């Protein structure tokens, strides 16, 4: 039996589970972890455990501190409900795109007891050793959750025959407030605790996933947008070594993180707003979380009112938990042996385009603001590539090439140059049918199908949408299984390496191209 046939058989078995749900362990199965017993729920043959704490409450003296272990418990603890999500500023659903991506549709409240994960498993045999897929949610480093509608892993567990896990972790000032300059050694790594949470979750998975039918030696970590950025950072953290074995970065290639001096200035600004003196850092642990979050929101709103980008919070290069910039000047050596997938989509930035009635003059002006004297040359190149595309979508495409795709290209090049484990790349070009196709192949269009969620708002529900979902979900399943994404649903997909730069193209003509859109890669190369 070939490798592709093996995967196909596994997928068929996953589909069969839908028709004949297996309730051998009862509707409410109990699993014993190293910390205590958990009671979950069977749904259509998939065992679901929600709100599983992998670390302690982060309030009070634990705020801004590395994650602390969960105290073991006696008896059986319920894992039927979502926990709180990390404190965050709600998204603005007055915009069509925000309402489509559902990043903030969280079925739970906020609070500081949020270090939890959700598990979906197709079977609870502790000897099954099924591949494990860990999903890091999007929303930058400031919003989103593993409880959100978009992170639901039930369909993927059923389709792929993998254990799927979504993680909650600290965000914004709660996860990335760099206080080392003011609090000394006690707060030396406060600017990375949100990422340390992810490492702690992976350590919990390594210790416990076998009880849920998973293989602790076959763990894939991947995410889109902010989830991709977190994956990029994780690959440079010594604490994560050995806890994951393949990674995926979807539209979130993060090359550099926050330098300490900039992070200290942001922390001082927040402390001033809260009237906390630098010598009284521990008073920040006594501030109600609602006040801390509101203060963060007010400072960011003030920046926007002045026409400035908000001085937000992100992982800090603290020299300890994160010793260096993740992908600058080169690929991190600590994860050289980890195979990787790097991706982007064609029209990432269309979600930021406020003027959908833009004309050709507006396109040229947009290009001038971005690239100055090269504007006319750039517009001519984009218009030649896509003669019938609306100006606002070409503007978004230009901006996408300068941001998301430039980062993805650089990351893939660095990983390939390292000559360690291989890297594969894909480019999603199939447009979203949502909002009459206005957004093109927009940021986030590949998220729902990557988890085999076939009724996502950006993708619609159609035979073609199901085919795309099967292709991308089976690629992630194959990658989780053995570190190679090739499978029966996609053409032969070679690793990315110059000069060929093989890239899987997700559109109506699913294919592999060498160095797609090479002219733009060269045009925008630093």
Main attributes?
alpha/beta, Rossmann fold, three-stranded mixed beta sheet, 16 helices, disordered N terminus
Overview of this structure, please?
The protein is α/β, with parallel strands linked by helices and 526 residues long. The model is unreliable at 1-24 (pLDDT under 50). 33% of the residues lie in helices and 14% in strands. An eleven-stranded mixed beta sheet has the order 3-4-6-8-7-9-10-11-12-13-14, sandwiched between helices. The chain has two domains: 3-259 and 316-338, Alpha/Beta hydrolase fold, catalytic domain (Rossmann fold), CATH 3.40.50.1820; 341-524, Rossmann fold, CATH 3.40.50.1820. Helix 1 (3-19) crosses helix 3, helix 10 crosses helix 11 (375-385) and helix 10 (360-371) packs parallel to helix 12 (391-402). The chain has helices at 3-19, 96-101, 154-160, 172-176, 180-183, 193-208, 226-234, 260-273, 289-305, 360-371, 375-385, 391-402, 404-418, 447-450, 463-482, 518-524, and strands at residues 30-32, 37-39, 41-43, 46-53, 76-78, 116-121, 130-136, 163-167, 214-224, 246-250, 340-345, 423-428, 502-506, 511-514. It contains 16 helices and 14 strands.
What is shown here, in short?
The chain is an alpha/beta fold and 526 residues long.
What is the ordering of alpha helices and beta strands?
A: HEEEEEHEEHEHHHEHEHHEHHHHEHHEEH
Percent range for helical residues? 25-40%
Tell me the overall shape. Answer: globular
Based on secondary structure, the structural category is: alpha/beta
Total DSSP helices = 16
- Superfamily at the CATH H level of the largest domain? Alpha/Beta hydrolase fold, catalytic domain
Going by CATH, the architecture of the largest domain would be 3-Layer(aba) Sandwich
Which sheet architecture does the biggest sheet show? Answer: 11 strands, mixed
The radius of gyration over CA amounts to: 23 Å
- Give me the count of strands: 14
Give me the CATH fold name of the largest domain: Rossmann fold
Q: Ranges with pLDDT <50 over ≥5 residues?
A: 1-24
What is the terminal separation in angstroms? 47 Å
- Tally of separate domains: 2
Q: What is the level 1 CATH name of the largest domain?
A: Alpha Beta
Sheet with the most strands: spatial strand order:
3-4-6-8-7-9-10-11-12-13-14
Report the sheet-strand fraction: 5-15%
């Amino acid at each position: 039996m070939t490798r592709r046939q093996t995967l196909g058989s596994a997928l068929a078995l996953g589909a069969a589970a839908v028709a004949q749900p297996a309730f051998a362990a009862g509707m409410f199965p109990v699993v014993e972890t190293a910390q205590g017993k958990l009671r979950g729920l069977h749904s259509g043959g998939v065992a679901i455990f929600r709100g599983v704490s992998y670390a302690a409450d982060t309030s009070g003296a634990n705020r801004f501190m590395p994650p602390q272990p969960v105290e073991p418990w006696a008896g059986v603890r319920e894992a039927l409900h979502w926990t709180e999500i990390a404190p965050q500023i709600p998204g603005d659903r007055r915009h069509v795109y925000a309402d489509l991506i559902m990043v903030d549709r969280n079925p739970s409240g906020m609070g500081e007891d949020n270090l939890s994960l959700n598990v979906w498993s197709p079977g609870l045999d502790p000897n099954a050793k099924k591949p494990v897929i860990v999903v890091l949610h999007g929303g930058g480093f400031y919003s989103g959750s593993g409880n959100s509608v978009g992170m639901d892993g039930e369909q993927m567990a059923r389709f792929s025959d993998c254990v799927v896990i979504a993680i909650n972790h600290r965000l914004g000032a709660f996860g990335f407030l760099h206080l080392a300059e003011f609090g000394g050694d006690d707060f030396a790594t406060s600017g990375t605790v949100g990422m340390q949470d992810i490492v702690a979750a992976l350590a919990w998975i390594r210790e416990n996933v076998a009880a849920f039918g998973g293989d602790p030696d076959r763990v894939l970590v991947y995410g889109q947008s902010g989830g991709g950025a977190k994956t990029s950072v994780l690959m440079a953290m010594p604490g994560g070594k050995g806890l994951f074995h393949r990674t995926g970065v979807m539209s979130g290639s993060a090359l550099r993180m926050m330098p300490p001096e900039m992070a200290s200035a942001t922390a001082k600004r927040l402390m001033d707003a809260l009237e906390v003196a630098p010598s009284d850092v521990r008073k920040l642990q006594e501030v109600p979380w609602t006040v801390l979050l509101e203060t963060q929101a007010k400072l960011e709103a003030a920046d926007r009112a002045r026409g400035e980008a908000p001085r937000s919070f992100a992982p800090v290069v603290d020299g300890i938990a994160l010793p260096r910039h993740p992908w600058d000047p080169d690929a991190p050596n600590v994860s050289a042996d980890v195979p990787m997938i790097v991706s982007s989509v064609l029209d990432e930035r269309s979600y930021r385009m406020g003027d959908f009635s833009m004309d050709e003059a507006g396109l040229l002006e947009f290009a001038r603001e971005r690239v100055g004297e090269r504007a006319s040359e750039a517009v001519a190149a984009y218009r030649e590539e896509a003669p019938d595309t609306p100006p606002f979508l070409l503007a978004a495409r230009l901006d996408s090439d300068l941001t998301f795709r430039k980062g993805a290209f650089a990351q893939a090049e660095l990983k390939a140059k390292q000559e360690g484990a291989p890297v594969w790349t894909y480019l999603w070009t199939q447009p979203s049918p949502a909002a009459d196709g206005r957004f093109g192949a927009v940021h986030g269009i590949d998220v729902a199908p990557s988890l085999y969620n076939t009724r996502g708002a950006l993708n619609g529900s159609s035979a073609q949408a199901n085919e795309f979902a099967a292709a991308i979900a089976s690629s992630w399943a194959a990658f989780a299984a053995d570190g190679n994404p090739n499978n029966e649903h996609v053409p032969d997909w070679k690793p990315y390496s110059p000069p060929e730069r093989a890239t899987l193209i997700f559109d109506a003509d699913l294919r592999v191209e060498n160095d797609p859109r090479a002219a733009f890669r060269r045009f925008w190369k630093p």
